[in-house]
């Protein structure tokens, strides 16, 4: 059978890796195509998390203004004790 050289072993390993990569690409082709299309459409300069946090903070501020500020009964409680006191039947 002959000696197995390092070059033959490297070729076999490289071939196995290439075959595995192609098998994964073909098995997950629809999912990978959707992910790649979404990445192509995305804007790398825009971070949606920053925008969502900013919008939520401005919504809370506008809710306080519309509902009457600090004296409003609809205002969110600031602590757990306030929430319990507000929701207790004795209050």
UniProtKB/TrEMBL annotation:
Domain of life: Eukaryota
InterPro entries assigned to the protein according to its UniProt record, in alphabetical order: OEP7-like (IPR038944)
Any one annotated GO CC term: chloroplast outer membrane
Bilayer-spanning residue ranges: none
Spans annotated as Disordered: 37-91
Segments of skewed composition (Basic and acidic residues): 37-74
Protein name: Outer envelope membrane protein 7
């Amino acid at each position: 059978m002959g000696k197995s050289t390092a070059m033959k072993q490297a070729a076999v390993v490289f071939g196995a890796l290439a075959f595995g990569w192609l098998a994964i690409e073909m098995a997950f082709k629809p999912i990978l195509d959707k992910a790649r299309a979404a990445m192509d459409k995305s804007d790398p300069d825009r971070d949606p998390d920053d925008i969502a946090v900013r919008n939520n903070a401005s919504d809370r501020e506008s809710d306080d203004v519309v509902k009457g500020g600090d004296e409003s009964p609809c205002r969110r409680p600031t602590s757990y004790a306030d929430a319990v006191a507000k929701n207790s039947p004795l209050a």
